[in-house]
Every structure is written in C-alpha cells, then in structure tokens.
Amino acid sequence: MNLNDLALMTRAKAVDTMSGLRWSGTCPVCDSPAMHIIQDPAGGWTMECLYSNCTETQILNTLNVKHEDVIASDPKIEEKAQQILLNLQAKDDAQERHARLKAAQSVDQIELVTAKELLSEDIADATYLVDRLWPTGGNVLLAAQAKAGKSTLSLNLTKAIATGTRFLGQFETAQPAGNIGIVDLELNRGQLQQWMRGVGVDQDNVVIFPMRGRASAIAGSILDPQARRAFAAQLRDANISVLIIDPLSVLLNSIGIDENSNTEVGRFLRAGLAELREEAGITEMLVIHHAGHSAQRGRGASVIMDWPDALWTLTVDNGSEDLDDTGDEDTATRFLTARGRDVHMPETALTFNENTKTLTVEQVGMSKRKLAYWKSQSRAAQAIMGALHDAGGSIEGKRELQQAASMSGASMKAPLERLIESGWVTEGQVVRGRKTTYSLTDEGAALAVEADADPGEIGRAAATRPLQ
C-alpha cells in the first residue's frame, strides 16, 4: 500500500503545506483528530499523534500495518493530486456552507400570525385572467380527450385574451400584463397557419413558437439552468406574460422522461417550468395534456394533477345515442369542466360555429344528462312543429294535434308549452263548445323546416361540427 491508502484508513485529509506532504486525520489509538502523516521531500515518512503522544508503532499496530509495507508517494504527482483534492474539499465545504446559509435564510422567512390577525387583514378578492376559470397568476392544466378539439379551444382562448372579448361567449377576460406566447409542438406550420386564420388569431400581442419536431430544444431549455436563462431572456424580450404549451407529453418524450414517473415529471414541472416562469416573468401559464383512457383526468403521473391551480377537462360524448344521432366522433358534442382554487364550472356543453370556428357556451352546467333531456325535448317539439307544418300551419283540437305528432298527452304537454312561450306556436282562444286551434307563427313556420335542434333553440341548425 502507499501513503494514500494509509490516509484513507485513518480518514485523513490532505493539508496544504509549504514543504513535503501532509495528511491530517483521526488517531486509531485514542480517537483524537490530531494524527498526522508526514512525507518529507526525500521520500521518508512518519506518523504522530499530537493529542496523546501515541507513537507511530502504536498507530500502525492498531491498523495492523507494518512500516515497511507502506510505500511513499511520488512527491511531484502527490503534490498535484493533493492540490486537486484540496480544491475538491474546498468545493464540498463551500457547497455545505451555502446549503446551511440557505437553510438559515429559509428559517428567517417562516411567518406565523394568529387567526384573528389574518382575518383582520384587508385582502383583495380573487381576480381572474379568465373570469371564474383562470385565476390571475395561476397555472392551468387542460386535460383533453383524443380528438376533442384542444387546439381549437386553446386558439379560441388565445383570441379572447388577446382581444379582451369573452371566452366562450360567457367569461370576461382581463388585459394580460404582456403578450401571449404559444409553444406549439404538434402542428406543422401550414396547419398552424390555417387554424389560426380560421379562428382569427392574428393579433400583434400573440407570439408563436412553431416547434414541431424540435421539442427537445424547448425541453432542454427548460431543464438546463444555463439554457433556461437564455430561453427566459427570449421570453422577456418578447414581453410574454401568458405562456401556453401544447402538449406536455411531447416535451417529456423528447428528452426521455417517463410521463408515469412522479419523480421525473415532478422535477420537470416544479423545478424546470417553475424556474422558467420565475426567470422569464411569466404571470400565467397553461399546459395542455392528453387525457387518460377514462377521459376524466390527464394521463400519466399523479403529480401532473397536483401541479395546476385550475384543472380544465375537455371531453367528447361519442357513446350516447341521445347526444349524437350520427355516432360520428367529429360531430359529437364537446364538454368542458373546470375545477380548482376559486374555480368551478360543472360539465358544460360547447357549441361550435363551423364558419367562424368559434366555440361558445349557451348555458353553463348543460351536462351530458341535461343535454340528452333537452335534445329529447327538442325532438318532441320538432314533431309538433312538423305536424303543424304538414297540416298547412294549424290544427284544430289538442287530441288531433297529438295524433298528428304521434304523441301522448303527457309527452306533448311540456314541449307544447315551451313552443307557445317561445312564440313559435300560438294557442287559439278557448271558446266553449269548440276545439282549441294550434298554429305556427311566422317564425315558427320558418323554424319548422330547419334541421336538428340546439339546446334552447328549437329547430335551429345544430352547432356541433367537426373540430380539429
């Protein structure tokens, strides 16, 4: 063995010295930290314990080592090696001191107040970038079922925020602190251009990162500290305050992260994205993710669901005959749900205008079950209006109307009342001894020849059309 091995046996560290080589460690005889191993320039070496005056023979016997079995180190090589070791030890010590300093500073940041003091504070009410859906300063995760139209929804969202108009025709949007950035990892430039033009996303305050096929460049710039600083500088230079990433899975896969690993995904979200947001001055972030097989949550690690302040879920109802007569996934109704901190929107049907590529909400809370009921009622109303239309616009007698519409009195009562309240059918004045006459109004006559019904708009063209 050489002196380095002996130094390891006594947990001795290299000591900087002007002449010769020296290690300082723990004496195996008295267990004091005052043992030294010294090699002189000529190649000789000795051991000593300055605390209890333990002799070299006592130390070596305790270690079961003979003096002649230990070879002195090459002074030139050892001096360089010891200097490198000293630098490494200094680095380790510096890191340990830095960690202890941060820990001490963290303790100073711990705050406590009494419940009475906290309740007495004048704290402003929660504010929103998108009313009731996206809190100011919040992270949103949009978990979208396959082919549900996540890109269409995100572009509608972008347009609403960029123009200060209502999202889905219902939810007020606030003016963002800066521009809106979209990191698109799925669409090619042609598709992206076509869809943006269709929805009407052409504002100067929208910045696009068309990165299909280059997701690893974005992912690497999020995880690597040096690259992240450069990416953050780009975002700051573009004055981006709202960042949308579409989708998360492409980012993770591009750098080999298992989306089912809480450790790996958690590091990406809580360290990488969180640090990027802080360094770039991003105030709000929306990340789009593919939903799992149940379509009720995002697929992969559970930490994905823990990360956002608000979770939006976009689903397609393609399994109910009541909701989609064609059974076609492209024309099936889409539903959006939102929940989170100060966020709650129950499952709500979306309406799509194929000409303007605009998504709207006719009634918040129009769930699958409610929509099924309204559509069944719509078909009943169409049967009544169709019977009146086929009879030339009017039918005398309620029983006659039931027979013409092939309905029972119970099934006709509610839809007939709604048609009368809507002003599409009139009920003649009841005269004793005479049957009541039911007639289409001019508007009702026009609606009677229209196609499928929308919830609340009997007879108007259905607003569910193919989404991208």
> Which strand order do you get reading across the main beta sheet?
9-8-10-11-7-12-13-14-15
User: Per the principal axes of the C-alpha atoms, what is the gross shape?
Assistant: elongated
Number of helices: 15
Query: What is the CATH architecture term of the largest domain?
Result: 3-Layer(aba) Sandwich
Report the radius of gyration as a whole number of Å.
37 Å
Terminal CA distance = 72 Å
The fraction of residues assigned to DSSP E strands is: 15-25%
Oligomeric composition of the shown chains: single chain
Helix fraction bin: 25-40%
**CATH topology (fold) name of the largest domain:** Rossmann fold
Tally of distinct domains: 3
Quick one: how many beta strands?
18
Coarse structural class: alpha/beta
Q: Say which CATH homologous superfamily of the largest domain is assigned.
A: P-loop containing nucleotide triphosphate hydrolases
- Sketch the major β-sheet: 9 strands, mixed
Question: In CATH, what is the class of the largest domain?
Answer: Alpha Beta
Return the average pLDDT rounded to an integer.
84
Unreliable segments of 5+ consecutive residues: 320-328, 450-468
Question: What do these coordinates show?
Answer:
It is a single chain. This protein has helices spanning 3-9, 56-63, 75-109, 115-120, 150-163, 189-199, 215-223, 225-237, 248-254, 262-280, 303-306, 368-390, 398-405, 409-422, 442-447; strands spanning 13-15, 21-25, 35-39, 45-49, 128-130, 134-135, 139-144, 179-184, 206-210, 240-246, 284-290, 310-317, 333-340, 343-353, 358-360, 394-396, 425-427, 437-440. By secondary structure, it is an alpha/beta fold. It folds into 3 domains: 1-123, no CATH class; 128-366, P-loop containing nucleotide triphosphate hydrolases (Rossmann fold, 3-Layer(aba) Sandwich), CATH 3.40.50.300; 372-447, Arc Repressor Mutant, subunit A, CATH 1.10.10. A 9-stranded mixed β-sheet has the order 9-8-10-11-7-12-13-14-15, sandwiched between helices. Strands 1-2-3-4 form a 4-stranded antiparallel β-sheet, with helices on one face. It has a 3-stranded antiparallel β-sheet with strand order 16-18-17. A hairpin with a 5-residue loop joins strand 3 (35-39) and strand 4. The longest helix is centred in the N-terminal third of the chain and has 35 residues, at 75-109. It is elongated, with a radius of gyration of 37 Å. The relative contact order is 0.08. Residues 320-328 and 450-468 have low confidence and may be disordered.
